[in-house]
Amino acid sequence: MGQRKIAAVAVIAMTALIACGGDDGPPTLTWYINPDDGGQAEIASRCTDEADGRYRITTSLLPREATAQREQLARRLAANDSSIDLMSLDPPFIPEFAEAEFLAEIPDDIAESVTDGVVQGAIDGASWRDQLVSVPFWANTQILWYRKSVAEEAGLDPENEPVTWEQIIEAARDQEKYIGVQGIRAEALTVWINALVASAGGQILTNPEEDVENLEMGLETDAGRAAAEIMQTIGREGLGGPGLSNQDEAGAMLQFRGDRGSFMVNWPFVWAATNAAVDEGSVDQEVLDDIGWATYPATTEGEEARPPYGGINIGIGAFTEHPDEAMEAVQCIVSPENQAFYFVNDGNPAAHVDAYDDPEVQEAFPMADVIRDSLEAAAPRPQTPYYNEVSTGLQTTWHPPASVQPDSSPETATDLILAVLRGERLL
Amino acid sequence: MSTTQDVPTGKVTSTAPPAGLSDRARSERRLGWWLAGPAFVVMLLVTAYPIAQAFYESLFKYRLTDPDAREFNGLGNYAVILTDGVWWQAVAVTVLITVITVAVEAVLGFALALVMHRALSVLRPVLRTAILVPYAIITVVSAFAWLYAFDINTGFVNQWFSWLPGISEDTNTFGSFGPSVTVIILSEIWKTTPFISLLLLAGLAQVPEDLQEAAKVDGATWWQRMYKVTIPNMKAAIMVALLFRTLDAFRLFDNVFIMTQGANNTEVVSFLAYRQTISRLEIGLGSAVSVLLFLSVVLISVVFIKLFKVNLASARGEG
Q: What percent of chain A is modeled with pLDDT above 70?
């Protein structure tokens, strides 16, 4: 009896040892992803297969909002979390992470290979102080969506002749329609403001790489005032619809598909979502057929628009225990084939130009060429480690859109943001 | 508590000098400390320690993404906060929401408590459960429910109540201060009135029935009995309920976070602390806001407890 007991204990101990020994197998990389339609999880499993046992990639879901994603990652990384091997990062927060040394350095040869054939806007968004600190994965941009019937009645042909905000406003005013913009006090508002200012030839921050004490803002300029004027007009005249002050991208899309939809600036997810809604039966085919697309509207006539730039870049955690495997994995994740797959599956445009020539992409997104051109012209949001303060300061002072004043709002925003950065005021 | 009504002069044994304690009383007291001690220590660990740390952090300029630049700032963070309109605006909104919700809840809660108290014994369990349901719902969930109900895109309220003046299909409830705060207050009232009514029900149960009978025999009307017998006898319970709810309401966070994110000047103090500490990662400044919030809560407690003591004494006929 006694011997049997000993044998049993030995077996249990052996099993325990073997279980512990599991660590010797292929390392598991954790990829913190933003919520999507399952594309990143699929890419993770494809790359796990491709690695052929050298590593495995599992995904871990971050919150829905970009700002909340940053909060979670920053708090973990500030505590030197080694479980973050790879992370999907929203570009505006990359300088902050790079400056805090949360991102592992990317060797020159890898940097070269992952930026080859990638649109310039995406490379800029993945870099900080002229150094690639993250890897471009997908690059987003907003384009102008319009109802062909409305444009026709207004005598506009946005597809062939770029339109200005003024023309759009006039068309909506005449036909009593709503313009789709994002007036919610959130990141979407900053995206809009930045595009308006940049399209007027200005910059929200003129020297974003400077220290806090020397930062200068570029809102108190003609460009800043032009942007404020457009927002004010749309807000005051109710052209953005009754829910403008808390309208986000999805809300703008719903309004655009309704009876009073006319023009809308929005990301390409609109196309995939509207097609799905037609398949579901919640939106008529006629509405879909009435939708046209063109490049982002210009702020001043004759000057090229600078559309918003967004997307996701992949950062490698500075505290990962498997830096080599993570570097290898990231190259697999961002391969043009995976980017094309992600474009078709999730509706998120690729950063690599080759993906746009993929026949499946061309079929699913007839506006793929417009998106690529838009990405080439896109202007990033201010690239500064203090982006959160700049963006929140803008959202506080330029909201609701109807309250924006071309004469005073640029100054109010400048004063608030600079005082907050100097630590003299609350935000 | 209120049964001490029968003690004519209010002299109770606990006022006797401690020197007169018997051996038994002394050992019981010691046993009491032994029993409560562990819980007390745990409480110190989980509450006193974070408060002390927050106070310590609040003396520094400290940004989580820039730990090397951390420097001692004395009371500088407090100076920044207390001289900033944003803080006072948040305090004003918080006080407004607190006062309205607590006042409405006290009246409503009392009415519900009376209903539960007087209901037939067959109905009582069903009634109590029904009234408690909102309290059992997680605040974030209830906040989302109210948000979606009033939202201009998804809400049914605009459709159903468009016959009311001021409401149409195009009413953007979360587009300005008044309507946003109203919905926040309504959802808060809906959610926490059960709590206050439960506490008041306990108070009602303590009102001696013989006093009510005596008043009835003397020919007192229902209102007279309510004012002269019921309410004075449950004053202690009312004050406890009000104190708990005021403290809760002052720390309001979820409804604002879900419904407006502080837009349209609906920012409350807890949300301000959250935004400095969590969104801006400004640990120093955020800790200072938290400490100020803590001090406000302490102030409310002190004011209430002073008030509470006076009333307790008067309830005993000492005042």
A: 94
